[in-house]
Amino acid sequence: MDDELTVSVGARRLRVSSLERVLYPETGFSKAELIDYYTAVADVVLPHVRGHAITLHRYPSGVGGPHFYQTRCPPHPDWVRTATLHFPKTGKTFEAPVLDDVAALVWAANLATIELHPFLACAERIDHPTQLVFDLDPGPPAGFGQACAVALELRGMLAEVGLRAWPKTSGLKGLHLHVPLDGAATYAQTKAFARAVAATLARAAPGRVVDRMARALRAGKVFIDWSQNDAGKSTVAPYSLRGGARPTVAAPISWEDVADAAERDRPPPGYGPAAVRRRLAERGDLLAPLLATRQRLPS
After folding, report:
1. Is residue 241 a contact partner of residue 114, using CB atoms and an 8 Å limit?
2. Per DSSP, what are the bridge partners of residue 94?
3. Under a CB-based contact definition with an 8 Å cutoff, are residues 64 and 25 in contact?
4. Residue 151 to residues 40, 104, 146, 168, 220: CA-CA distances in angstroms?
5. Proportion of the chain in helix, strand, coil states, percent, rounded to 5
6. Buried (b) or exposed (e) across 74-84, using 16+ Cβ within 10 A?
7. Beta strand residue intervals within the chain, DSSP E
8. Is the N-terminal amide bond of 141 cis, ω within 30° of 0?
9. Which segments of the chain belong to CATH 3.30.70.3300?
10. What is the pTM of this model?
11. CATH architecture of 131-292
């Protein structure tokens, strides 16, 4: 059945296709539902990705099939903006997509882009990140509750040097802390700072925290991944769906939620699209203050 349609999204016209394709076989969640979700949450997704080059994590056959990260912009309408990325280590230069409006978001979703991974710097100043990120990944048997406990410790360490942070679930098993910046620091500076913070906590709690990449070191500990703070890497966006067995979302949570999960050793909340939409109706965007905050990275 050919279910290709031409739709209007604001002032734009674009074609969408294969709407009945099931992307999550376990739940039957379809490509039409993917587009519907991103359209419904566009008002909160776009402020977190607008103006940033983005990597599209595409699942053309659904989460059970082949998938790939695509930073080089695929064929696109002329109204989808792109940004030039240059990577001195590899010598590569190419155009990456920038999703500035709802139509561009729908264009990406129509490509079976389940996950959105923006770069931490704006496209106009690609070497100066506007955020610093800590990715807290618990190694079994450690779980989400232990990651939340480490997040609280990190929050305290950051507060001591005058920095505020906001949490979101990874949408899988871990937790991300976002630290907004004023754009003055380079990636080299933010990465060095994040690495130093992670190393300090790992030395203070070696039985619970690890800051080294080797997976053999992570069992029963929370790995603080500081390496995301790099010009060549991108981080999953707030409200992005994830490509697990079920459609879960990288959802913002409050520090009260983090403290409760740490105290009660709760599992990952596993918020799905419907739950996220309900939370937005009840609580709004918990990361909205992050967008309005500018902080200078300590020297």
Report:
1. yes
2. 85
3. yes
4. 30, 34, 9, 11, 16
5. 30, 25, 45
6. eebeeebbebe
7. 5-9, 12-16, 22-24, 29-30, 54-58, 68-70, 81-87, 92-98, 113-118, 131-138, 166-169, 175-180, 209-210, 222-225
8. yes
9. 131-292
10. 0.96
11. 2-Layer Sandwich (3.30)
Question: What residues does CATH 3.90.920.10 cover in the chain?
Answer: 4-118
Please, how many CA atoms are within 13 Å of residue 296, restricted to the half-sphere of its CB?
A: 2
* Residue-level pLDDT, tens digit, the chain, 299 residues: 457 899 999 999 999 999 999 999 999 999 999 999 999 999 999 999 999 999 999 999 999 999 999 999 999 999 999 999 988 778 889 999 999 999 999 999 999 999 999 999 999 999 999 999 999 999 999 999 999 999 999 999 999 999 999 999 999 999 999 999 999 999 999 999 999 999 999 999 999 999 998 888 999 999 999 999 999 999 999 999 999 999 999 999 999 999 999 999 999 999 999 999 999 999 999 999 999 999 999 98
Instruction: Tokens for 206, please give them.
Output: 């070696």
Q: How far apart are CA 260 and CA 61, in angstroms?
A: 38
Candidates 2.30.30.40, 3.90.780.10, 3.90.920.10, 1.10.260.40; correct CATH number of 4-118? 3.90.920.10
One-letter amino acid at 12 equals R
Calculate the CA dihedral of residues 199, 292, 247, 21 and round it to 10 degrees. -130
Tell which residue, 249, 252, 250, has the closest CA to residue 291: 252
